[in-house]
Design a protein that fits this description.
single chain, alpha/beta, four-stranded antiparallel beta sheet
Amino acid sequence: MRRRDFLKCASASVLGVEALGRWSAGQATSNALDRYGGWKGKEFRATGFFRLEKENRWWLVTPEGNAFLSFGVNHLHMGWWAQPYNREVWRERLGVAQARGPDFARAFRTWFMQERHRFGFNTLGVHNSLDVLNAPEPFMPYVKPITFVDIPHWKQDVSDDNFVDVFSNDFAKHCDNMAAEHVTPLEDDPYLLGYAMTDCPLLTEEDCRQRTDVIGGGRRAARIGWPRRLRNLSINSAGKRAYVDCVRQLYRNEIRDFNATYGTTFNSFGEIETARDWRLETDLSNGNEMRDNVEFLELVIAKYYQTALNAISMIDAPNLIPSKTGRQHGGLLQIDGTPY
């Protein structure tokens, strides 16, 4: 479902249903919503967990089996409320001695628990201090972040090594270990709306180019990206073999056509497998090379998300996996290129 269609559906629901409209304004009556914020006027099968169900359109469904329209809040991080320019304001407003420490955290959580009703927030998004807001226990649906790969757009420095070989057994083990650490403690939590992976990952050549500034104002040098990183690995790398298999199919096993694109002199596709660091840069004006990179990148992304999804699903199959990619995997609902 595309974002604009989703918004039309959401708007129609809000405008056409009085109870849901009152909820969106933060004025829902106690009998209009279930304990998770789900609207009782649209019922589905209750499973005890958040999930998706398609009935004419995709619906988020609460553990009690009611339709859920998520209206989330992000960036409730303690540090943002304790900056030099605002720490005194928040210290006084929350009635604490210092804008830090456990007293500040508890007071902030109490303040938000009350304030959220005024704005109608019913979800804690991926960018929040869950260690504070969910302590001692969750009080509203939330999204749990799990960073299987550390390649966000907002960092000033993303190492080339962070574009890991997602086709390797080591990556699968890495995902299994992260899932065991982050998913296992939450597998029975009904307030868990879903899991989110890397926020705004660096994927395309445009994503990876040099930036004069990122969030916070710092510069970021150009990054290598997955296609260039994996195609230059050694023959022992599963990602390198996956790249060669990809281009072999794209060029119908005609090495001469491949050489014509890249100006190389390989005698076979097997020679590409043994060539390390054979093409460290991408010629952005080379249409065939750009096509090859896009085709291979789609395979990389599919493998990345499927491996991570499998690791989570082995422990916690019911919950959703919001992410940012151009494809749909497993329990993802795609909205205009962004599964959610």
